[in-house]
User: Fold these one by one.
Assistant:
Number 1:
Amino acid sequence: SLCFTSIEVPERLTVSHEALIKNGLADRCVSVPVREATDADILLVHSEEYLEAVKKTPYMTLEDLKEFTLQYGDVYFHPNIYHCAKLAAGAALQLVDSVMTGKVRNGMALVRPPGHHSMSSAANGFCVFNNVAIAAQYAKQKYGLKRVLIVDWDVHHGQGVQYCFEDDPSVLYFSWHRYEHQKFWPQLRESDYDSVGKEKGAGFNINVPWNKVGMKNSDYLSVFCHVLLPVAYEFCPDLVLVCAGFDSAIGDPEGEMCASPDIFAHLTHLLMNLAGGKLCAVLEGGYNLTSLPQSVCQTVQTLLGDPAPRPANLDGPCESALESLHCVRSAHRQYWSCLKHAGIKGDEEKSQEEQVWPEPPKRVTPPIRAALVLPNGVACPDGCESFGASEDADPVIVNKLRYVAAACNA
Ligand SMILES: *[C@@H]1O[C@H](CO)[C@@H](O)[C@H](O)[C@H]1NC(C)=O
Ligand SMILES: [Zn+2]
């Protein structure tokens, strides 16, 4: 069982935010105001009975709170947690709105409490409302999205997210998690690779169990390259949500894994090619106050568009990771054409007809990445174009600049 009460602490957010400031990343981000999730938002995922029960917690005595808490697994209700949980879910929704309306390209919500263990009618693993599951339903409903990809790189299985979408083919849920053949919390049979989703949702739930601790960068990248990315390209999401838990990084007392914080630069970068770059990362776990802020910074810096660092220590996946990888691929072979063995086609199948193909669609990118205002007499740096203040403004250029001014921090 987890002991979240001693590790899921407010310092997790303060050290992460301080690190973003110290590394000059906070200044490059657009701050999005937070709001409370409404009842209607929360009811997208949770039952009315559960919401009404949580609503009463701010008015309970300590004794009543203890009693209330006992019915759930590994969660502690503080009188203030209902308010915090509404803000956490609301922050995720504000981020979805900002990305879907094009205000920003992508973003990250640094929130507590986390969400991915929480279920329709139950708190669990310090999660009260399922922030990312609510965000996925909200994005589908408000923006009419047909396909949402949820990537859960937290070291725990987000069983709450799985339960929410396991029969829903419009949400593809991918999770890797410490499992150790069901010995690791939450010790569920349904966290294994053969839980692929149900009914119409079969094939849209991907579990990668880690059966050993100490997984490294190579193991993580192998699973991305050989399982997640091929399927994600075939799925072709309209939006990518990340259950961004960093207890899967080195030094974490829960995960006991060995991937370095810079691996999250690569994982983020690889996901930014999907959904036209629309990506919302929402913090889940991460309990080492040294590696957590480093991992957060790696993720945010990549979201800002900086190139990923050279990957270090890529010495190939370990045997246990390879075994998991093969199990997942065969469990999903029947659902995804990218996982089927390509047929061996003979010459006789080669078409003699002239091949035709459409012109590739136009790629829309802002004409200018960043605008720079320089004092008189300062030389224009390489790669920048200079417009003198006294020159007659060309309306075409002014239009472009206005566009840039709105987008340069995004
Ligand atoms: C975080 O990792 C460092 C380095 O391994 C270690 O000294 C420290 O005890 C860890 N902190 C926690 C909370 O596990
Ligand atoms: Zn976790």
Number 2:
Amino acid sequence: MADTSTALRICPLCEATCGLTLTITDGRVTGARGDADDVFSAGFICPKGASLGELDNDPDRLTRPLIRRDGVLTEATWDEAFAVVEQRLGAVIAEHGGASVGMYLGNPNAHTVGGSLYAPLIIRGLGTRQVFSASTLDQMPKHVALGLMYGSPISFTVPDLDRTDYLVIIGANPLVSNGSLATAADFPGKLRALRKRGGTLVVIDPARTQTAKLADRHLAPRPGTDAALLFAIVHVLFAEGLVDLGGLADHVTGVEQVRTLADEFSPEAVERACGIPAGQIRELAREIAAAPTAAVYGRMGTSTVEFGTVGSWLVDVINILTGNLDRPGGTMFPLGAASAAPRPPKPGRGFKTGRWASRVSGYPEVLGELPAAALAEEIDTGGDGQIKAMITIAGNPVLSAPDGDRLDKALDAVEFMLSIDPYLNETTRHADVILPPPPPASSAHYDFALNNLAVRNNARYSPPVLALDGRPDEPEIMSRVALVLYGVGAQGDPALVDGQVIATTLTKEVEDPTSPVAGRDVGELTAMLYPGPGYERRLDMMLRLGPYGDAFGAKADGLTLERLKANPHGIDLGPLRPRIPEILRTQSGTIELAPEPLVADVARLRDALGRTAGGFLLIGRRHLRSNNSWMHNLPALSGGSNRCTLQIHPDDAADLGLTDIAVIKGPGGELLAPIEVTDAMRRGVVSLPHGWGHNRAGTGQQLAASSPGINVNQLNDGTHLDPLSGTAVLNGIPVEIAAAG
Ligand SMILES: Nc1nc2c(c(=O)[nH]1)N[C@H]1C(S)=C(S)[C@@H](COP(=O)(O)OP(=O)(O)OC[C@H]3O[C@@H](n4cnc5c(=O)[nH]c(N)nc54)[C@H](O)[C@@H]3O)O[C@H]1N2
Ligand SMILES: Nc1nc2c(c(=O)[nH]1)N[C@H]1C(S)=C(S)[C@@H](COP(=O)(O)OP(=O)(O)OC[C@H]3O[C@@H](n4cnc5c(=O)[nH]c(N)nc54)[C@H](O)[C@@H]3O)O[C@H]1N2
Ligand code: SF4
Ligand SMILES: [Mo]
């Protein structure tokens, strides 16, 4: 008789953070379904979550460390692997300093306890400025816009999906992605509910996506022109007297400056560039202004383009000018339970980028990071400050960043490379040591990052479901690396790392007169912490200091980890609530509608309006059963429509005489791909998914390698960036298409 039980686990695979009920049979995950009692996701699940068992049990997932012996990656014990890290990383640091070590942090860091609580300690331990992440392939423009307007790059504005009357989705496809920078389980259901209650859904996307098919109206602009389109909406709001700041009136500065800037972006001035008739832009602006509540929500298609930061800014500008920011039904600021408790409003230090610049191309630093597209040149260009060793954590930049071939060669040449990753893939195959974290079911989960993006405030925690069998968990792996950097050595006690963070945090808190624990005793507070592993102690500390916390016993019903654990389906903390002015940290203490760096970039946008482009523009696409580069190895998610094809409009295909294989030529190279004819593509636009190209030797994902696809990012040469954020242009790339042969 099999021994079967169930256990709860929050899904770590995308930003929707669904609660899952896992079936455990004989110590393995054998099934996953939606947890109907989860306070946030209420039973929603997608095919990826449903395949969590396959992911947990994937035979290609590394269970033991690999170390390079005589050029070959071979299995080793944990002690051996940490000893190599200590010796080889130590040698590079001794010779060239911690600043010579480059770090690349990939997407799953936003979903793991390790990435949230421990990766920052490794960066600090190195003292390096060579820090790169998937953010500059993704949402960095949004951070910059938020930082400049509100004073903090992590004060996210999210659409109040459950209450809005009018939702504009620009450059996102949540029916497939399940939402991004707007954490909402069952995004599809929320869009349907919006329409059911009489609301309106508008989708702006060059492709008629699954989301567009659900919309009341779909506008299909030319790729890369969102900023111009959004500016035209702003223009109409001013020109037709539709600006109404509502309750924000006392908190916004720079309105007149924006009015002046918008002058030259009339719908008529942008219609040719955007490929949207002026009348339709006007109508959209009027409807947004007239709706009882409205929310404009922009994502990848607005972000990873030439004017990504300006576009992300204008999304918020429209929400502000129509009085929709910070009110129910508009766009609001979530308040996560592990974030700092709100303090009284006060002017902040403001937000600055460019505190230093990248060594080779002089790209400005943004949030302490340099552009991922510049990682290869920082490794392969000699001279002072060159990267000599690399650490990658949960990332696959050889496939996810532009010009992976160059990075591939560069990584081969570093003196030492460490990867913390469960797979031997296109990037980690260059490592000298791979330290594999355990699978999701053996890891704890709390959404430190994504709870600050949730469309409804909530707190949920999953302790590990399965035992570790003597392996270190990811917090321990990262702690041991940090101990090497602190000079303690990998055999030191990992609890030291958490102890240090707790002591530093509490010392600061008790000295802060606005803290909920002002004036208390650090020793007394420390003794009160939950008696669990280090990450649980830290989570308990954060919750208790946080906005809903018990302030270490001072608030009777406040949140603690103990209370959270007693509610395994989570604790609902209610709908989003207004947070202005408390959240503002600009120097002026206001919402700055016209920050200088954004104003300065407008001329570049205006100049681009006159550009006449021939040829095709390439955009990306995601698939429901795929996740960037790393889930092509699971049988349940492979095959069917999840294929690496070039989608093209039938008339374009006919004009070019395309029947099966196309040659695609971009600024960085040339690729061959099978075509998929579909009238969902706008004419003149073609699409390829990313994360494919599993044909390099020496990787360890057998199923993925059997249908490798091509790496779209090889069409990119890595020199095209949104200058304000350093984000690579991944959408709207000029390409030439021809029939192969
Ligand atoms: N052309 C084009 N390129 C794109 C995009 C696009 O739309 N078009 N999208 C961009 C975006 S939005 C992103 S976020 C990036 C993603 O870029 P990356 O983050 O560089 O790539 P991923 O494919 O997400 O790789 C994730 C890695 O994390 C590992 N991993 C999985 N779980 C864990 C874990 O629990 N711990 C650890 N340590 N590792 C884990 C996986 O094995 C894999 O190696 O790609 C970007 N690249
Ligand atoms: N199934 C699945 N889910 C995922 C992922 C995955 O790989 N697969 N990846 C996760 C990650 S890391 C992220 S960041 C999110 C991304 O989440 P989303 O941003 O929702 O996902 P995308 O599919 O990249 O949507 C971008 C849309 O922008 C459109 N687009 C391209 N160029 C332009 C343009 O110039 N203007 C406009 N208006 N639209 C344009 C594209 O056609 C596409 O439909 O998804 C996450 N969820
Ligand atoms: S939508 Fe995202 S969080 Fe929910 S089950 Fe699917 S992958 Fe997991
Ligand atoms: Mo992403």
